[in-house]
Amino acid sequence: MTSTEALASQIDAHLSDKVRRVASLNDEVTYEVDPAELLSVCRALRDTPELKFEMLMDVAGVDYLHYGRDEWQTETATRSGFSRGRVARATAPDPNMAGRFAVVYHLLSITHNRRMRLRVKCADVHEPVVDSVIEVWSCANWFEREAFDLFGILFRGHPDLRRILTDYGFIGHPFRKDFPLSGNVEVQYDAEKKRVVYQPVSITPRVLVPKVIRHDHRYDPSLRDVVPKELQGPR
Fold first, then answer.
1. What dihedral do alpha carbons 39, 41, 42, 43 form, nearest 10°?
2. 109 contacts 53 by C-beta, under 8 angstroms
3. Rounded CA separation 115/28 (Å)
4. What is the Cα–Cα distance from 109 to 38, expressed in whole angstroms?
5. What angle do CA 93, 95, 98 make, to 5 degrees?
6. Which residues pair with 33 in a beta bridge?
7. Burial class (CB in 10 A: 0-12, 13-18, 19+), 60
8. 164 near 59, Cβ under 8 Å?
């Protein structure tokens, strides 16, 4: 049994009635928990001797609005490479879809030198809320503030839930998939008022098509390590 499966079997033995395993890479362990069970599961993951996930490495917000919908498609390009073209979508994603927002916790067991991922989906898409895990891992404070700032996810019980990266007067949450690329407002200094003012954004939103990398004969495999004639010495 691999170390990954050994960890999964221990989690199932202690928390099978509260968590469910979800698909992940072969060398990773990911579980999902319902919002009502989040705190009790986190305490068990931290305090159970066989698990001992003492450290919270990160808290990440997720917006699944465009999940499973490729933005760029061609026959030969990779998902992250160039040489791709813009494709029209048949239907627009539903911003009111159930389970659109989620919170993912990345955990580390220093005792056993193991990692796992825990995910909880927000029940309400219009007011995504989950319990704060600060009482379990105090370092969650700024992580949760970041998720609130960028995704608009609320953390029930957080002692100081306010923006941490954007300005306090910022409108919206920039990591949401339906947030405009150019934002909603822009900031500039008003010489007459002698202060910074907000005004509607003046940039026209547009989608950039990635550069297409075309074939260049200079990089042809048959020409590799070939010395040009003008550089060749006497024979």
1. 90
2. yes
3. 8
4. 18
5. 100
6. 19, 120
7. middle
8. no
Distance CA 218, CA 220 (A): 6
Per-residue exposure over 13-40, b if at least 16 CB sit within 10 Å of its own CB, e if not = eebeebbeeeeeeeeebebebebebbbe
Judged by DSSP in three states, 22 sits in coil
Q: Which helix (H) or strand (E) holds 8?
A: helix 3-15
Give the model's pLDDT for residue 85.
47
Q: What is the pTM of this model?
A: 0.77
156 Cβ partners below 8 Å, 6+ apart? Answer: 129, 130, 131, 132
Take residue 115 and report the two structure tokens written for it: 């990692």
Place of tokens 């219009």: 126
The per-residue pLDDT string of the chain (235 residues; one tens digit each, 9 = 90 and over) reads: 789 999 999 999 999 999 999 988 888 999 999 999 999 999 999 999 999 999 999 999 999 998 877 555 444 555 555 444 445 456 778 889 889 999 999 999 999 999 999 999 999 999 999 999 999 999 999 999 999 999 999 999 999 999 999 887 788 999 999 998 888 888 889 999 999 888 888 877 666 655 555 666 666 667 666 666 666 766 6
Place of tokens 């600060």: 134
Note the pLDDT of residue 116.
96
What span, in angstroms and rounded, lies between the C-alpha atoms of 7 and 56? 17
User: Both tokens of residue 21?
Assistant: 């395993």
CA dihedral 135, 139, 145, 151 (to 10 degrees): -100
Q: Could you tell me the two tokens for 146? A: 């970041």
